[in-house]
């Protein structure tokens, strides 16, 4: 058994010594003696301090000392040391869209997960998984952005859980470590882990912060999308995105099968009824568009079909890339071999200046991001080393002190202390009776 | 005279005289100077003859020489009845206070009786007071001694009430822990009526200097008064007790009452000599 706050144990011992000293200088009622002039004695507490070489009232002293020691031991946060491996590992496995080969990442993580360790997989959320669950996740089609702060929070929590019975815990991060995985909370969450992080960098998707330069295929002669797409093309360059404003054809699908191509199926929705509405796109830079918009029902049907299990082995389940303000799906993305097709069910009014405004431009930019979403660049090695901060493990005692410890033993000690205090009261009452 | 254990004390005070502190009223011939003029052989003064005077007291030779009738006067002497009022409350049983009171009464009574003064006693305790009227007959001192020896101090006593029945000389032996103010008032009134008042304040050495070990001091006459006499309170006790004794002595003396503090470890014969000393002499000492 060890104590997380040994100074409280010392405090309890000092208190017990004080009680012993008080028993040596016990205040007790002196013997009665007749003195006719007693009225001239100043009135005071009818007790007098007397010193003795031996502690008085050994039973009461023992009960009091026991109570103080038990209270001190309880507040010293005792922890029972259980047998187990000396060093345990918590592995943070990145399964976000930034990872190029999740199977390789899973293998790398499994190799580093020793006995009694814990595995945390993360993308935009982090969750602890058991080995069986991890096998299922390895081939998951999730393609969300990774968030390191969430992974660190879950990792520290799991580290505290496995710290009991171990000497120390080390943390391993298996990730390409891209810029998009850092957010405002990352630094603060990194500070919650007192030790170093062993960084295992795995290949990311080809650093595709490459801008897409969309082309527009529209049946309208004066499609209001044209100026906005022209501005995107002028600012970014490149030629891998096609925005189709009509029903898709087999040639469109064939075009989208090539790697790096993005086919945005965004029908005109002529005649659709618009109403004040809002839609949000989830991308590297989330964009919100609030305007008179139309919910395109035909496209929704197509999307429902697209969300069904794919018959072609090359297809994968669609992921939602935009939602209406009430949570319903507004746009999806489905992979088609090397490229992807995006279906957007947001009807834009053909009249008005909505497409000339910045919110629409941002929303459009989110719709033409590369397949799987935009990617941040991988952080530099020096920045990664600074983030990792070495590889040293953290003492399990430190983790237990920082987190919630098993208070069972402390509760028992406190209970025993209460019993001792009750006994003290009982003994003292009998003494005065 | 059967005086038992008081024999040595009586031998020690033999020959001691206890003169009145001022002329006494006239009465039976005695050792104390009286306020009256009598026909004693020693001449004091002349006074013109008044109708009704005894013609035998005329100075015939002066009448023959001056043809004036004068009465020849001489100083008169009378006895002084003495009553000892003894406080027999429980507080007087502390240490040697009761023994000292008994021995003082016996010794002073013997001294007074030696001058043919009648002596009596009132023992005041919680029970009915025991009165021995002032008498001059032989054996009265022994009777006082027996009465005192038969008395056990107990309870509380109102000493002041006994002063009213006292003889001309009233000697109170008390520790003054009861009705001190009433006693002082009664003695003052007694003196105003021409009597002589003595207050012998009986104090124990242990009251002056209590033992060092801490005790819960308890008043024997009131058990509700129980206070710790320990190192922290000892100085306060001395201060309060000394101040009270000094104030009592000052007030009693201011009323013309002879005040003597007698401590239970002092030789009784010396105390007797100090008590019987005339006021002027005592003041010069």
Largest interface (CB within 8 Å) is between: A-B, 22 and 31 residues
Helical/strand content category of chain A: alpha/beta
CATH level-four homologous superfamily name of the largest domain in chain B = von Willebrand factor, type A domain
Domains counted in the coordinates of chain B: how many? 2
CATH class of the largest domain in chain B: Alpha Beta
* Binned strand content of chain B: 15-25%
Specify the overall morphology of chain A. elongated
What does this structure look like?
The complex is a heterodimer of chains A (433) and B (285). Chain A is of the alpha/beta class and 433 residues long. Chain A folds into three domains: 2-80 and 406-432, no CATH class; 87-205 and 378-402, Rossmann fold; 215-367, no CATH class. Chain A contains 13 helices and 20 strands. In chain A, the strands form four sheets. Chain A has a nine-stranded mixed beta sheet, with helices on both faces. In chain A, strands 6, 7, 8, 9, 10 and 20 form a six-stranded mixed beta sheet that branches. In chain A, a hairpin with a 2-residue loop joins strand 17 and strand 18 (339-344). Chain A is elongated. The two termini of chain A are 41 Å apart. Mean pLDDT of chain A is 79; it is low at 207-211 and 303-315. Chain B is α/β, with parallel strands linked by helices. Chain B folds into two domains: 29-78, no CATH class; 81-272, Rossmann fold (3-Layer(aba) Sandwich), CATH 3.40.50. Helix content of chain B is 34%, strand content 25%. Chain B contains nine helices and eleven strands. In chain B, the strands form three sheets. Chain B has a six-stranded mixed beta sheet, with helices on both faces. In chain B, strand 7 (169-174), helix 5 (180-192) and strand 8 (196-203) form a beta-alpha-beta unit. The interface between A and B is medium-sized, with 22 and 31 residues. Strand 3 of chain A pairs parallel with strand 9 of chain B, so a sheet runs across the interface.
């Amino acid at each position: 058994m060890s104590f997380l706050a040994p100074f409280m144990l010392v405090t309890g011992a000092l208190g017990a010594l004080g009680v012993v000293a008080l028993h040596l200088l016990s205040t007790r009622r002196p013997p009665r003696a007749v003195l006719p002039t007693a009225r001239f004695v100043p009135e005071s507490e009818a007790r007098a301090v007397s010193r003795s070489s031996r502690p008085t009232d050994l039973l009461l002293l023992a009960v009091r000392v026991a109570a103080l020691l038990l209270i001190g031991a309880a507040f010293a946060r005792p922890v029972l040391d259980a047998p187990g491996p000396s060093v345990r590992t918590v592995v943070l496995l990145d399964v976000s869209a930034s990872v190029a080969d999740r199977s390789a990442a899973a293998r790398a993580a499994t190799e580093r997960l020793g006995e009694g360790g814990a595995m945390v997989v993360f993308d935009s959320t982090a969750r602890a998984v058991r080995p069986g669950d991890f096998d299922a996740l390895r081939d998951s089609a999730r393609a969300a952005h990774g968030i390191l702060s969430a992974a660190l929070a879950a990792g520290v929590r799991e580290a505290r859980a496995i710290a009991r019975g171990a000497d120390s815990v080390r943390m391993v991060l298996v990730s390409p470590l891209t810029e998009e995985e850092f957010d405002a909370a990352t630094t603060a969450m990194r500070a919650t882990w007192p030790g170093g992080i062993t960084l295992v960098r795995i290949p990311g998707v080809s650093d595709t912060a490459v801008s897409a330069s969309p082309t527009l295929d529209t049946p309208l002669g004066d499609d209001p999308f044209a100026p906005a797409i022209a501005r995107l093309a002028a600012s970014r360059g490149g030629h891998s995105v096609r925005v189709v404003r009509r029903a898709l054809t087999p040639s469109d699908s064939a075009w989208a099968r090539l790697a790096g191509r993005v086919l945005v199926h965004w029908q005109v929705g002529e005649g659709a009824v618009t109403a004040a509405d809002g839609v949000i796109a989830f991308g590297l830079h989330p964009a919100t568009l609030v305007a008179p918009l139309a919910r395109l029902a035909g496209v929704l049907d197509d999307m429902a079909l697209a969300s069904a299990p794919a018959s072609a082995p090359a297809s994968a389940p669609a992921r939602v890339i935009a939602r209406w303000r009430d949570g319903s799906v507004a746009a999806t993305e489905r992979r088609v071999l090397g490229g992807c097709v995006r279906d957007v069910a947001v009807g834009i009014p053909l009249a008005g200046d909505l497409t000339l405004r910045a919110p629409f431009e941002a929303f459009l930019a989110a719709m033409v991001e590369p397949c799987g979403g935009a990617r941040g660049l991988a952080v530099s090695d020096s920045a990664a080393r600074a983030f990792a901060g070495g590889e040293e493990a953290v003492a399990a005692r430190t983790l237990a002190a920082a987190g919630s410890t098993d208070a069972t033993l402390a509760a028992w000690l406190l209970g025993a202390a209460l019993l001792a205090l009750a006994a003290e009261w009982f003994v003292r009452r009998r003494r005065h009776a | 005279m059967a005086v038992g254990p008081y024999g040595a004390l009586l031998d020690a005070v033999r020959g001691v005289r206890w003169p009145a502190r001022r002329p006494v009223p006239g009465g039976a011939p005695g050792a104390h100077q009286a306020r009256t003029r009598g026909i004693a052989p020693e001449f004091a003064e002349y006074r013109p003859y008044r109708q009704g005077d005894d013609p035998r007291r005329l100075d015939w030779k002066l009448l023959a020489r001056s043809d004036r009738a004068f009465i020849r006067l001489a100083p008169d002497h009378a006895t002084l009845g003495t009553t000892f009022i003894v406080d027999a409350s429980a507080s007087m049983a502390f240490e040697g206070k009761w023994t000292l009171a008994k021995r003082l009464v016996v010794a002073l009574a013997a001294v007074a009786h030696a001058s043919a003064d009648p002596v009596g006693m009132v023992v005041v305790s919680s029970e009915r007071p025991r009165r021995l009227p002032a008498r001059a007959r032989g054996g009265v001192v022994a009777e006082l001694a027996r009465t005192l020896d038969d008395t056990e101090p107990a309870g509380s006593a109102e000493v002041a009430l006994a002063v009213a029945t006292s003889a001309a000389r009233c000697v109170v032996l008390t520790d003054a822990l009861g009705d001190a103010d009433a006693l002082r008032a009664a003695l003052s009134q007694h003196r105003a009526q021409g009597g002589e008042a003595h207050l012998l304040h009986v104090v124990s050495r242990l009251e002056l200097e209590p033992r060092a070990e801490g005790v819960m001091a308890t008043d024997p006459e009131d058990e509700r008064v129980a206070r710790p006499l320990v190192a922290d309170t000892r100085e306060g006790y001395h201060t309060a007790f000394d101040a009270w004794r000094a104030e009592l002595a000052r007030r009693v003396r201011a009323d013309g009452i002879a005040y003597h503090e007698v401590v239970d470890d002092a030789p009784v014969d010396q105390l007797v000599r100090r008590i019987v000393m005339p006021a002027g002499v005592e003041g010069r000492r």
